Backbone:
């Protein structure tokens, strides 16, 4: 039960400053913040701005688990965080971190029992425990996974499970760090609805998030951090259109950026505020188009309609791709069933050529990561064939496949082991037996491409998670494979890093190297890639080019994972 009256802030920080042990600069600087009960307060900022630290501080993990120097006051649900251990604070606030895998207890064998684990530790009566677990499973849409092992789930399913476990605790305060990182778009919408419902019940939600479009949809309030300091705090419509977000590199939501571009081109009414949601963007563009028609200005009317056609051209910016005689990868009626009986792939046939930019999309659990593991022989078909460089993976080695396909997986911690960034990047080309000169050249090129020169002699695990992901990408990039596969590469990245990744993909395509991106970030896929493959229940439901999507294909994509903003604008009736 809450220790506060309804009129008091349930989260109160006064001049809170925290410096991690061994760090030279504070992660948070004199942060003062009061959050009332029942508010959804979003924390935004670039990677390393202090968002995760703020969430961990409110839950007591800072300073009790992550050691360092804390000054100022941090009061949550009437309890001083500094004066109470995490074991006591858990009754007041639940924290869900950005890495779902690391939050699985390992002590329970089913999803159902994992969600119940925290309640068991609190000694909750069994009837109430059952009611809460059933509710949490339904709320996150994972009832059908209740008897599965937590370790047999996809990354997105694991993320839903750990959020469900926190929700089942029903604490007065819920702190979520990048909760949408591995969720598909429908699951993100479902999470929004759950959080709004909880807020209406009086639960306070603090959420650190990079996906500004989702923040615009769910938050009551937005707090922007830069280098550990609050630079903006207020209503989403005010903060998410604040010029300081662009000045500091945080950026604006996509609807805001599109409308700002439209305003500069005379396609947005000057007196109308910039939007933060898709609905407001579409309405504003329609109003501007209607106004242009009424003024009998055919040139302006033509410009107003360009929003439906301009962005399509961005996929045609590169020179036309000439198919090679031999594909990099061919999947021929590939089926795959895991030892536990889960049939992940059900007859997948694909051809991946040189110079392609491909998006692989689908719901959590659709089979995307399983398919990726067939591209370099880590998994071999139960039925059908997987050819890499023209050779059946069942007759060759993973080492040989690695010369053709390089993969960066969702959890990059499993791929980083060297003592410095330089040695990490050198490992791949050296392991492939390249000459010393070529190893040096590939290493330097990859380090510069991912802008890692300033940390080249640092230990990868001394870097923030976002830069750690860039190190993993650089390490695979240096292997110089014809196909580079990136599984959820934008997870946890800020706008600056995402723009860096987009430039890398374009450069690779120019040099006839292919990129396959597994992602739930449909807008990034649309803006950066050309071909989209939709996987549904282990089958290919759509294989098309973004620029050529017709209404029927757009409807297939919409009904499964949703549509990128630009496609929704193009097909307003889809």
Residues:
């Amino acid at each position: 039960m809450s220790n506060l009256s309804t009129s008091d802030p349930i989260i109160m920080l006064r001049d809170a400053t925290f410096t991690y042990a061994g760090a030279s600069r504070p992660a948070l600087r004199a942060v003062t913040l009061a959050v009332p009960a029942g508010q959804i307060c979003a924390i935004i900022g670039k990677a390393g701005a202090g968002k995760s630290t703020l969430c961990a501080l409110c839950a007591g993990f800072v300073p009790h688990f992550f050691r360092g120097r804390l000054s100022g006051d941090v009061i949550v649900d009437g309890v001083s965080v500094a004066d109470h251990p995490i074991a006591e604070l858990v009754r007041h606030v639940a924290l869900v971190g950005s890495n779902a895998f690391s939050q699985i207890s390992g002590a329970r064998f089913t999803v159902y029992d994992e969600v119940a684990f925290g309640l068991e530790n609190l000694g909750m009566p069994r009837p109430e425990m059952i009611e809460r677990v059933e509710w949490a499973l339904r709320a996150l849409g994972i009832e059908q996974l209740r008897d599965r092992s937590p370790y047999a789930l996809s990354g997105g399913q694991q993320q839903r499970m750990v959020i469900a476990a926190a929700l089942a605790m029903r604490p007065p305060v819920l702190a979520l760090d990048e909760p949408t990182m591995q969720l598909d778009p429908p699951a993100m919408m479902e999470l929004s609805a759950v959080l709004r419902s909880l807020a209406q019940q009086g639960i306070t939600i603090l959420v650190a998030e990079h996906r500004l479009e989702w923040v615009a949809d769910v938050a009551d309030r937005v707090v922007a951090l830069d280098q550990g300091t609050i630079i903006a705090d207020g209503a989403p419509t005010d903060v998410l259109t604040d010029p300081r977000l662009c000045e500091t590199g945080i950026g604006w939501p996509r609807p805001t950026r599109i409308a700002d571009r439209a305003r500069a081109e005379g396609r947005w009414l000057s007196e109308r505020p910039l939007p933060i949601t898709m609905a407001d963007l579409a309405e504003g563009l329609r109003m501007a188009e209607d106004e242009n028609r009424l003024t009998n200005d055919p040139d302006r009317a033509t410009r107003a309609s360009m929003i439906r056609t301009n962005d399509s051209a961005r996929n045609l910016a590169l020179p036309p791709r000439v198919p090679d005689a031999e594909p990099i990868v061919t999947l021929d009626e590939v089926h795959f069933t895991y030892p536990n009986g889960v049939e992940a792939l059900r007859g997948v046939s694909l051809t991946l050529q040189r110079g392609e930019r491909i998006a692989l999309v689908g719901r959590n659990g659709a089979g995307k990561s399983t398919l990726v593991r067939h591209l370099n022989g880590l998994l071999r078909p139960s039925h059908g064939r997987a050819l890499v460089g023209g050779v059946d993976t069942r007759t060759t080695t993973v080492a040989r496949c690695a010369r053709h396909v390089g993969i960066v997986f969702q959890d990059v911690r499993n791929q980083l082991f060297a003592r410095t960034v330089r040695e990490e990047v050198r490992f791949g080309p050296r392991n492939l037996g390249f000459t010393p000169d070529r190893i040096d050249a590939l290493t330097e090129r990859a380090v510069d491409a991912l802008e890692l020169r300033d940390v080249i002699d640092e230990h990868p695990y001394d870097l923030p998670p976002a830069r750690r992901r860039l190190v993993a990408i650089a390490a695979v990039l240096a292997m110089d494979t014809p196909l580079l596969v990136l599984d959820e590469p934008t997870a946890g990245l800020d706008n600056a890093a995402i723009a860096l990744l987009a430039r890398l993909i374009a450069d690779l395509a120019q040099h006839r190297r292919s990129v396959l991106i597994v992602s739930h970030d449909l807008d990034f896929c649309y803006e950066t890639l050309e071909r989209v493959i939709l996987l549904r229940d282990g089958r290919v439901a759509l294989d098309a080019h973004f620029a050529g999507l017709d209404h029927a294909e757009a409807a297939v994509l919409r009904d499964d994972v949703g549509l990128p903003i630009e496609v929704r604008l193009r097909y307003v009736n889809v």
